[in-house]
Each structure stands twice: as C-alpha cells, then as structure tokens.
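Recap for those who missed Tuesday's class. We walked through two folding examples back to back. For each one, the amino acid string is listed first and its predicted structure tokens come directly after. Nothing is annotated here on purpose, so try labeling regions yourself before you check the end of the notes.
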Amino acid sequence: MPSGFHHITLNVRDLDRARHFYGEILALPADQDFPGEKLRYRVPGTDTRLVLKPPLPGTPDGDRFSEHRIGLDHIALGVASREELEHLVETLDTHHVEHSGVHHDRMGPAMVTFRDPDNYQWEYFEDVSQSNQ
C-alpha cells in the first residue's frame, strides 16, 4: 500500500524563474539542482518532493498551465497555523505575487490561494488538526 506521494513533477517555462519563486519566495528547501535539467525541493513536514522540469519538446511557445484542461486542477498544502498563512501573505506581498489573502474555505479552514509564474494554482490551508494539538 502507498505511504504517501513520493514526488510531484511540474513542467515550468523557466527553471531560473522557478528557482526564485519556489526557493526564495516560498522558501522550499532545495533537495537537488541539475542546472538546465530539473530542480527538486522537499515539501517540509513530508517525504514528498516537488520536481520542476523544463517544458517537453513540442510544448507551444508561451504555453501556461490551465486548470480548464483535463489533468491537474491545483495543489494544496497544509501549514501549522494561521500565523504561517499571515506570514505567507506578507512574503507574497513583498514579492508582488497576487493572492487571495487569508480567508476561509467553505469547509472552514483558513487558506491563501495564489499562482506561480507558470499559472499553477497553489492553496495553503491551516491544518486545524495541527493547531488544536
């Protein structure tokens, strides 16, 4: 039986831009960097890796992610507290990244929604199971 996600791979237009966004803005810890080939980050608190690769041959110039196609819709991660969400908002503001602000999902937990430079939608949720411990 699976014990969790090993990795998620996203094709990105520009590895240097992705390095700045995921490494500097989101502060994901780098795991491996193969210049020009791929970047790999650890998702904190998990055994999951986020792998970023350049577009596959045949990808149209200027192509961006869209959830209006079959496939991935968005990626959601949990954080330990509302304070972490508020810190994320401050960081996104500092780097001029549009976001939803801290708001409540219709299911209840606080969350922040934003997009990366390739238009992948990310959601960070307050993990209420962690904050109640």
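Example two. Treat it independently of the first, because the proteins are unrelated.
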Amino acid sequence: MNFAQAEFAIFLFVVVAGTWLFRTPRPRHLWLLSASYYFYAHWDWRFCGLLMLSTAVDYRLALCIESSNNQRYRRGWLLCSIVSNLSVLGFFKYANFFRDTFADFLFRTGFVDEPSLGPAWQIILPVGVSFFTFQTLSYTVDVYRGKLAACRSVTKFALYVAFFPQLVAGPIVRAAQFLPQLEQVPTWNGRRFYAGLQQVLRGLVKKILVADWLADTVDVVFAGPDLYTPGTVILAVIAFAAQIYYDFSGYTDIAIGVAKILGYRFPVNFRHPYCATSIRDFWRRWHITLSRWLRDYVFVPLGGSRCGGWTTRRNLMTTMGLGGLWHGAAMPFVVWGCWHGMALVAFHMMKSVPAVVADGKTSQPRRSRLRSFLGWLATMMVVLIGWVLFRAPDMETAGLIFSTILGLGAIGTVGDSSLPAIAWYPPVTIGLLMVALAEHIVWASGGRRWMRLPADRWFSPVVTTVLIWLLLIASPAGYRPFVYFQF
C-alpha cells in the first residue's frame, strides 16, 4: 500500500475515523496497532512474524537490562539485542553481498577458480527492515545507558515499533520521542489536524508532481549514459539530486502529516539540505534522524571527536562507511558512504587550520557572503558526485557517467524516438528543476507560513485547491514506489 495510491486514502480515512472515536488509551492503541499490522501485511503478510519477533525480543531484553544490577549481565543482554537485530538485518539484506564479496576474495587470492559460489540465494527483503531494526536497537541501548525506562506495556511498545506512518521508510523515531506520547489520549485540535492535512498534500505534490516526473529522465540516462551528451548526463545527475530529495522528503512529509492528524509528533527529517554551505551542514539537514542515529550509536561509541586528530577522522570514515552500507548491499553505496566520509574528514582538517588574518581591504559582510557561496558550491559538487555513486547500479556505470561528463568517452546523441519524451526534451526537465529550486528556496526563507488556516491566510484554500487539481490532472502514468522503500 503506497502513500500515493487511492487505496491508502481510504485506509487512512477509516483509521483516522476509528482513532478519534476511542477516548481511552488502550482501545486506541489496539486499534492503531491492528491498523499498522494490516498496513504491513498488505506488503507481505509473511513478514509480520518477523516484526512480531523483533518486537518481542527487544521488549524482553530491555526489561532484563533494567531489572539487573549486575553490569556483566546487563552487557550480555545488550549484546543479545545487538546480535539479534544485526543478524536479522545481515541475513535479509546482506547475505548475498557478503557471500559474493567473500567469493571474489577467494578468487583473487587463488583459492578458487571462479569468482562465484553458485547462484544467488533467493532472499526477499522485508519492507522497512532497516528502519524498525534501528528503532528497536536504539531503544535497548537507551535503556542500557539509563536514558530511558523500559516500557512495561507490550501494546505500547509494539505500536512504537510498528506504527504505520513511519514503519516502511522512517523517519527513525526514538522511543524517548514516541512512548511518552502514548501515556495519554491526544486532545482534538483543529489547527493541528488541518496542518497535518496540508503537510500530507505537500508531500504528495513533492512525490507525484516533481520526483515522479524527474524519474523518467533519470532512469533512461542512468541506464545508458554513453548514449547521451555530457550536458544531458549532467542534467540527469542534477535531476536525480532533485528526485531523491523530493521523493524522500515527500514521504517524510506524508508520514509526519499522518502522525499529526492522529495526534502524534514525529521529528523533522529534512531542513532544506541543498542550502547547506558545508558538508557537515548538509548532514545536519539531510535525513536528520539517520544522521543523529549514526552519531549517537556509532560515532560517539567509537570515541567521537574526543581524542581529536586521526582518531576523529577514523571515526568519521567508519561511521559514514557503515551509513553507506546501511543504504544497500552493493559496492556503490559503500563507496558513496566513504566519499562523504572523506569529505567530512577534509572539512574537519580545514576547520583545524588556523584562519588567515584578514588584510582589512574587504568588508566582513562581503567576505562572509563570498565564503558562504564558495562553501555552498563546493558542498553541492561533493553531493552531486556522491549521488552518481548512490544512483548507479554498479561501479562500472558510475565510472561511465564520470567519463562521459569529463568528455573522456564517446559522445552520444539524444533523440531516439523510443525513449520517453521527457528524456530527450531537456527543457521539460529544466523547468521541473527550476520549480523544485524555487520551492526549496522559498520554503527555506519562510514560505511555510503560507500554508496555514484560511483565517490566517486567505489564499491557503486557493493554493490547496490548485494543488489538488494539479495532482488529479498532471500525475504521471504508472506506479512508482518511493526510493527509500528499497532500504
């Protein structure tokens, strides 16, 4: 069941109506839990058992950690939680990747004659497994650290893990952010309900009217970059940068909006990342819940920046490499993570260099604006190069894209009538990118104030009507899943 399908609208209407009929916590929680499992079963009912098992294991282990006064036992229970969660993630998501990597190692070292151990294992990846394992793992770690009391209610904890708005693709909600909200029934608030509907609408517009249309150009160019001119390939790379942002932030907007409609709060996951003026600033704006998760549960335990120097740089590389691997069991994702790790290391090294004393010939505001612009330009170059690695199906394709952009390969031509019209009509893609850029800048500069109740802004219902009309008449044909469903 996709957020952008009419079927989900019917499901949501029934869930919202039922939710606000229940005025006591337990029936409300049971209703939402049943709806969440129905939502997950709609993808593949067989994995509901896996979701239940993950919930039960971490629920019980957290109680064991809290009740024990023996530090050795507490560490043992925590280790069980870490192993169980990473085992689930490792088997379903990385079994074939580790198997093929090991086979290639044996081949290169001469232990075997072929770089393969036979046909790949037919393992179905459960939807959202990367997200709910991270949520339950952070819960047991927080209980172990004493930052959170273990949840005594199975229903509440199961709802925290399976709550349908964020179950499939985040944001990664921590127990300390959500479990306290289940202690009482939210009160009805018309302004909050309307704001939630507006955020859902904005997410649908991002996904359907921007990301899905850009996807046509991205898909065909990345499938055969050697067929296109360097300008077209560069256009496709920029188009993917816009597509993945509007696709993923659109999903996040819908998830946060649905939670708001139901009376709950989710953390912000994006803060206009393409306005970032440094790579560190970018990761404080992009997929914020994952960035903070990696910081708190990987980077800090490794030592963080406490030791300084090369230790900090090693920790940055390790954290970003694991972050890349989290996104997918393929070498381009690992290289993408390491690329961002190197960029963060370079930024850390530059920050440690003493600033040069100004000569006083240029005014401070002008120097500041120039520095911000150059920082933004360098950041966007790093990010765009990274998106090539992220989107390319393999390293060979990524290399082909880079060589085409640099003019080192054969120059292709565009105009094959068998390609989708948008792929050989760059002005359409450029127009969409201009719309996306305008939205990004306007919203970053305070445009969110425009989408309020009619009593606050007379044009809010007008804008809403226009957006709904555009969704009805301008939606692209076919079904396109959200990009982050594969993770």
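Answers for example two:
The chain is about 65% helix and 0% strand.
Residues 71-108 form the longest helix (38 residues).
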